[in-house]
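User: Show me a protein chain along with its predicted structure.
Assistant: Here is one chain, sequence first, then structure tokens.
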Amino acid sequence: TTNVDFNSAFLSHLAQLRPGKPAHFEMGEQSIKLETAQGAAVEHKVKLPERWIKGFLQVQAVHRQAQPRFELDRLTAGQLLMQIPASASKTPLFLVPRRHKPEILHRQPVGKDGFIAVNDGQRLRLLHTVLPDLKTLRVYQTEATGASLWVADTGTAQFTLGLSGAAAHGFSGDGDALRQLSAVDADEADLALARAAVASLNHFSIADLAQHQDLALPYATEIVDRLAQQGVLGFDRDRDLYFYRQLPFMLGDRYQPDRLKGSQALLAKQAVDVEHCEWRNGELIANGWVRGESGYYPVTLRVDAQGYLQEGHCTCPWIDQHELRRGPCKHLLALRFVAEQTG
């Protein structure tokens, strides 16, 4: 798995590529080199920033939760994208993908369907470069955070543009992976066997892994969640399959989200009191109190049958400011972990 962020000289050379003109592309362990008639450009390997690595772990969570919204043909996609303003907007853009007559509105249309809301919509202008080769544009969105995926299909290749809920923060700030964290822990031996298996399967569904490893489907789901949190697995929303990715490093506790570390500190202090906890139709419903820095916080939550935190409330500053748009606070996580072990 490789993250590529080309410099301006390299991008200039890429922009000059034309069908039928010779070019030489060389990918090495320490650099990427492009040679054309205009000369050569080189991009050297650099150390990844920690913030990027944390966001990398969140991307698969966004892909897993994103739901299909609409699919546009080339003409409609072009008409829609060309209306995207170049300057940033303080309010969301509401994209109405009406066939051959798409609109971009600055006020939310009536009803819940037929449009998609995008914060900092100017980021979509990145898709302009693929419009000449575009055949279809498929759009997915995670309703809870507003993150979206735009899959530009040229027939011979796919380009996926992922947008976080807002330009001010990356996917690590969306916190969607934190909604899926569970206290249930898979056996380390099973994890090691599954880690080897996914490398050979490469692209697979949870059912494929369960059959391959002779595991119950719920347990296979827990193992996939753990491997995804470790960065071993990604998820292709367009194909609806997990895929194995080889990282140049092992991810340890250092790369855990800060809110997860905070919840573990609360657990170590035994700062969680569960008042009510029950499983109802596969869902976990719980409420209680969590002792924080400035007193006790009343906390309530609902986790659906797929292990996703659908509802959560806490009186701490994080939830007061963001609600669940950027994921749960450490108090919600701590209550969930204790409730799952108690229920």
